[in-house]
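worker-03 picked up job from queue 'complexes'. Input manifest follows; two sequence lines, order preserved.
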Amino acid sequence: MLLLKTYRASFIFRVHPFCGDLAFAAASCGRVFLSFSSQAFYSVPAIFGVSFGIRKLYMKTLLKIFAWATLRMERGAKEKNHQLYKPYTNGIIAKDPTSLEEEIKEIRRSGSSKALDNTPEFELSDIFYFCRKGMETIMDDEVTKRFSAEELESWNLLSRTNYNFQYISLRLTVLWGLGVLIRYCFLLPLRIALAFTGISLLVVGTTVVGYLPNGRFKEFMSKHVHLMCYRICVRALTAIITYHDRENRPRNGGICVANHTSPIDVIILASDGYYAMVGQVHGGLMGVIQRAMVKACPHVWFERSEVKDRHLVAKRLTEHVQDKSKLPILIFPEGTCINNTSVMMFKKGSFEIGATVYPVAIKYDPQFGDAFWNSSKYGMVTYLLRMMTSWAIVCSVWYLPPMTREADEDAVQFANRVKSAIARQGGLVDLLWDGGLKREKVKDTFKEEQQKLYSKMIVGNHEDRSRS
Amino acid sequence: MGAAHSASEEVRELEGKTGFSSDQIEQLHRRFKQLSGDQPTIRKENFNNVPDLELNPIRSKIVRAFFDNRNLRKGPSGLADEINFEDFLTIMSYFRPIDTSMDEEQVELSRKEKLRFLFHMYDSDSDGRITLEEYRNVVEELLSGNPHIEKESARSIADGAMMEAASVCMGQMEPDQVYEGITFEDFLKIWQGIDIETKMHVRFLNMETMALCH
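worker-03 finished. Artifact:
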């Protein structure tokens, strides 16, 4: 990295004496040449799956710089005698872990000075519990927190994650400016060129492989074309991925299930294993890619009309899974992008099929670039641009041991079991809530739970009394 | 965050009026902005964005309490259409924990304020009395989620509780004496000597200790 930087700097310096169009043309040629040569530098290892460890060094250097930057900001804030804005991801309220029954009993006990055998059926004080709970949720609730990007405690030189602008000194501003220059003028064109190469190679490669006769050679070529192109895309994003427990990688005839944070999840998983994708048929560039991919090996693409029909979807997935020669399917059961601090409810469809499930946990490190796609805030293109102008995408992938549905479990319980395993491994919070809450309201069935519990308590007392 | 000076002045003013610390005010301000969608005021509809609140059986009464003019100290009755941040903090201040540094008089005052807040929740027509109808209304709402309880049983439960309250407040009643309803003084009488302070507050996490542990 450093070598390339100095090369570029000296090149432009030499061009400087020549003025006008010549300089501009030379500089842009130089840039293109440079990006191609560095592309070769990147792509060749990608083809063979080898890494030089340069990205790890890059990561370490960046971390040191971030720590320094945060220290400067804190010093700046102290000088001005202000409080730094500190994000609290654990919430601001100490919530009581006691249950409804315990609390109400306690309130009544402390309240009632009357004889205890005369247990009253309803007291004015019962309203305390619900009132307080209501206030607590208004102040701070678990769910809406999950749908906005995670907040950082140290600054990573990206203005989009900084809320303490007024505490930046001159030195920090210069550093930040340098960071912007590097990210937008150097890293971005490089990455875009790489991404372009990767995608075009994928389309061309899979189309060519599609013409080969069916057989082992075709499969071999198809697998390696896919892997190579995904690896190039991974380098296009400067994604530094650590894979754990690779012996548990999904096998043919299984379903691979993972938590969903962004569309990049697909690239990350597919660059380490050979999967069959599931999804809707799109138009435009995505459609071209999809049609090309399906020529080389069988993916499962659904027409828009077919997506609504759950039985049809289940049938096609079952057929695919039962054919042992076909690849494992990659599915994201949450159904939407969550901000990677928790795992939300898994939709039960993929768990009803009855195949072996290989859970995978993906956890991003938000210090280098936040990978969460807030689809209500950013469109796909804006999102990709943000990804490509971050420092890097650092994440860990854990392959968990395979799970199958047990005899006495139904699909929902199985889904929850898998979800807990993923949440536990990735260090994420396991929530019961539905990812669909990003866009819709709470289902009525949930509303009634608390009320049923409370009323059971009251009516229980009533019945006891009438019996005695 | 705008000009640092005027913001901190405002914060100090709010600190004095509501008793929250500046850290807590900042946190609540962020929450306010989240609920209002970056608007300067909140309306009733904004509370629909809190999914956990849907589970609460007295949800509508809680939301109503935010807009109640009596709680906002803006009048003897009626509902406001929208509230700003200061009003939001005023309502939240009813749930502040009892400060150990407060003297007896302040503790008594704070307790009275909390009980008054609850009283307003029951007394929906602002006539200063909790009538049998209003009491029934609260019990029905609390039990509304359960389809197995009929309206009749909910009513009888409310009636029984009301009779008990009447006996506490009025002692033995003549057969033709009508009990108008629970006034605020009677309400206070019911709670005399009973510790409600620990149940009617929300505890904020200590901000300083959290800042130190990264």
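worker-03 released lock.
Chain B touches chain A through 64 residues (CB under 8 Å).
Chain B has two domains: 1-94, 102-195.
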